[in-house]
Amino acid sequence: MKIGILSRGKKIYSTEQLVAAAKERGHDVSVINTLHCYMDITPHKPSVRYKGKVLENFDAIIPRIGSSTTFYGTAVLRQFEMMGVFPLNESVAISRSRDKLRSMQLMSRKGIGLPVTGFAHSPDDKADLIEMVNGAPLVIKLLEGTQGIGVVLAETKKAAESVIEAFRSLDAHFLVQEYIKEAGGSDIRCFVIGGKVVASMKRQGAEGEFRSNLHRGGHGEIIKITPEERSTAVRAAQCMGLNVAGVDILRSNHGPVVLEVNSSPGLEGIQSVTGKDIAGMIIEFIEKNAKVGKTKTKNKG
User: Fold this and answer.
1) Is the distance from CB of 37 to CB of 49 less than 8 angstroms?
2) What pTM, to 2 d.p., does this model score?
3) pLDDT 10s digits, 223-274
4) For residues 27 and 2, is the Cβ–Cβ distance under 8 A?
5) Do 154 and 18 share a domain, yes or no?
6) pLDDT-based confidence at residue 299 (cuts at 50, 70, 90)
7) Is 50 within the bounds of a domain?
């Protein structure tokens, strides 16, 4: 098979692992810098060009699109979809998952467990917004934040009001969520491929840090998840329409709640903690499922 990987760097760990796994299985693999692609949006024969050449004859595309390049990255991926190339994750599914508000509304509609959440821009009644999510302490998140950036724990009502005012002054959209104290600064990353949780790990935040992101000094360990947690992770990925996803779950007193569904989950943490060849599983999924024009959202925008 001829596989393309949309990634901004060949030396990124996840990209390197996917390239190695594809080559080990005898596939022809190319890493394509998403932002250096340009498109010919011609009726009947759309194409993607790169370094003066048309990118063609690909059987599958693996999108490794960062949050800062979602708009252009999904546009390039959509062009490949129009050409009939099989996407590991579809452009529409990635766009859904990257929009924190939309993703939570979709999961809410399906009855998937979520923290009590409020969404606002310029609330007329800050006190009511705070009480709506069970009061302080609470978590306030910028809608565009990623990897724990733009996430604040407000331990008192006064602090929460100050943060809300600060975000209002930035003309920013934000989420206000209940603080799941019983989680103890940890969460569970479930790695879903093809409707199955293939690996999971507990991520514990650094001392004094409520965010568990490994990028922020947290550490991971193997964990056995419950059937309910497994089901929640699978349903969350399916709700977004993602074939491959990293689903972040908190253990709360009222059951598992989903924090986020990541459409380009990193491989380094989960592979090093679990010892599993996740990259190989992804390539195996492509081998079994890649067919020309096989996209659920073909011709649907």
Assistant:
1) yes
2) 0.87
3) 999 999 999 999 999 999 999 999 999 999 989 999 999 999 999 999 999 9
4) yes
5) no
6) very low
7) yes
274-297: per-residue pLDDT in tens? 999 999 999 999 999 998 666 665
Asked if the structure places residue 299 within a domain, the reply is: no
Rg (alpha carbons) of the chain, rounded to whole number: 20
Task: For residue 244, give the CATH number of its domain.
Answer: 3.30.470.20
Residues making up the chain, counted from first to last: 301
pLDDT score for 42: 86
Q: Does 173 share its domain with 148?
A: yes
Residue 206 near residue 218 (C-beta atoms within 8 A): yes
Range of the domain at 226: 96-112+182-263
Is residue 177 packed enough to be buried (19+ CB in 10 Å), middle (13-18) or exposed (0-12)? buried
62 with 103, same domain?
no
Q: State the helix-helix crossing angle for 227-240 and 100-109, rounded to 10 degrees.
A: 120
137 and 244 inside one domain = no
